[in-house]
Amino acid sequence: MNGPSLKEQTSRSARYDVLLFGLLITLVMIGFILSLTSGSVSIPVSEVWNLLFNADAASASSSQARIVQELRLPRALAAFATGAMLALSGVMMQVLLRNPLADPYILGISGGAAVGALGVIMLGLASIWMPYAAFTGALLSVLLVFGLAGRRQGWSATRLLLTGVVISAGWGALINLMLSTSSNQTVHSMLFWLMGDLSQSRGQLWHFVLILVVLVLMMAQARPLNAMARGDLQAAALGVNVRRLRLSLYLCASLLTASAVTLAGSIGFVGLIIPHMLRLSGARDHRKLLPGAALLGGSFLMMADSLARTVIAPQQLPVGVLTAMLGVPAFLLILYRSRMPANASGNRELP
Hints:
By secondary structure, the chain is mainly alpha-helical. The chain has a domain at 6-96 and 202-337: ABC transporter involved in vitamin B12 uptake, BtuC, CATH 1.10.3470.10. Helix content is 75%, strand content 0%. The chain is globular and about 60 Å long.
């Protein structure tokens, strides 16, 4: 009995794409609605629409208009941008390192950003210099890993990973030193930043431009990424310039991670579980996986932040606590359901 024809396979794939991205866009819309309506002050959906687009209604309800326009909308945009950047970076790191457990922070970028951020908190300059110090620390970590991993022997996934782990351990020692020598009030601010916090975050236009530019660049390399996900030897046999692609992946993933950490602190599990969730749903092709990760990562973090603002309202939890609580069981379930057979080259294919 003959299998499905090429036309039937193409039609089935097109229906799957429409269903997948329709669902992802719906999740993004739900995430924005929850972000704008939930919190210590509950605002109905219809009222939110008027406050955003009706000047008369906004002036009549000035306090609610300020909550939505000045607090919740910028925070929702920051949550979406952070989640999208972390998820995209996670996809690229897992291909780069050939490791399904890789996440955006595995190469020490968050540690460098944390040292910079905690340093200005200790000096009492956080309100002005926090973003710049965190971004500088992240870029310093990128340069250290890049310089040490690529020296003499050249790049390899193992060498890059080991270098990142060592650099991360060094940053961790500095972070512990800062925490142990700081005052109690300063330590509280430090811990909130380290756990990931969106309360002071504001999404800017350049965050979305960065996401779009990286997404376009990586989509242009989708076929080489598909080949590289099966191993460097297979990719090279198909004519992929593995060294150049690896460098592009590292630089783009590092830039996204540095921007995300600067915006919201260290938020775990988003870059780890989102790519696996999409792969298990059938989106293994990077032409679907990359934009799908941006949409799902953004909506996931918006929903997690909405929950963090409401679960013990009027107090707020760091959003990193919620992503960890949701991410641990989700990743255990993914590990249970996934299978990672070794391929002919001895590498393990991503689930």
